[in-house]
């Protein structure tokens, strides 16, 4: 599944603006500012300032649910791809698996399902910066995957704002302990642009720091007008919501886009909850073109939850169907995360359901408040113990797996809870996987 999904999305994103037959921008419309920046990114690929998408996929974390088919077999259904925040769940996984590894010991009948081994700081540097990656000596090492996203030879900045974040703070500590570098956490208010004709982009991207002594090996200057000390940003990890990206303004966003290692095409296209609907629609075309094998095409169609795009024929057919069919579907915010804003069809009256679905095809759709329709997965429940005081409970599981620059790192954490929607941020529990020792 991981390989098939990566192949399909890489091909789709790579021809987003050029495939007139597929008409992908019409299939999944973006805000004007988002379309402008992505078209600009595409122009920089032609200029050689940004790599083709296949070389800078960044960090993806698909979520999946498990349901039973008619034969009583467990079926895994991918329900969304989380790719807006680069370290989303990676550090929980790394430390969780490392703790399990230490707890189980060498004589246990079980081993961790994902290799948590510590990173080797002597790894060879990448040949090209910023768009290539360190090649992992051990392919499935979680921390290796996180550290392969950037070049450790250069100072690292991390850009965030409203999102409190969990993994990003764990990452900063891990980078300091294991690579000997201290990433600097900055906000959009810290960013500055310095015109520089010697730079290919015409600018140096900088941030405000307390003093030149705090620069940590970066190029610095003192701005004569403000007296501020500016530190140059060579590479940056971005954890901003879509509206926060738009709030940067055109030129600042362009300069961030040139230097961020979680590519803007990943943030604005792959993270969008409509992307799974695009993939399902494109599978026959991908197979005809030889991008996917017949087996890979079958895997994707079986493994991706039915996701109906706004104004599509399948969505129109659903609207014309019997009203009670709404109970088989959910409405999911296309720009959301953490389960926020998901509405179950059985929570709406037939009239409210019809109004919500019809609004998805209305002109001038505001993407920040728009939904995609997805078939509701009725997940399997499993026996587990999450708290000693509660004892054994029976809950469904939400699974994850991590893909970094096209490489599968392994199974991520599992989430569990009593509610219909399970998120760690809203009190859900999490756990790591073990497998029987071979």
Describe this structure in words.
The chain is α+β, with helices and mostly antiparallel strands and 438 residues long. Among the domains are: 111 residues, Rossmann fold (3-Layer(aba) Sandwich), CATH 3.40.50; 69 residues, 2-Layer Sandwich (Dna Ligase, domain 1). Helices cover 30% and strands 22% of the residues. It has 13 helices and 20 strands. Strands 1, 2, 15, 16, 17, 18 and 19 form a seven-stranded antiparallel sheet that branches. Helix 3 packs across helix 8 and helix 10 packs antiparallel against helix 11. The protein is globular. About 5% of the residues have low confidence. This is Putative ser thr protein phosphatase family protein. It comes from Eutypa lata (strain UCR-EL1) (Grapevine dieback disease fungus).
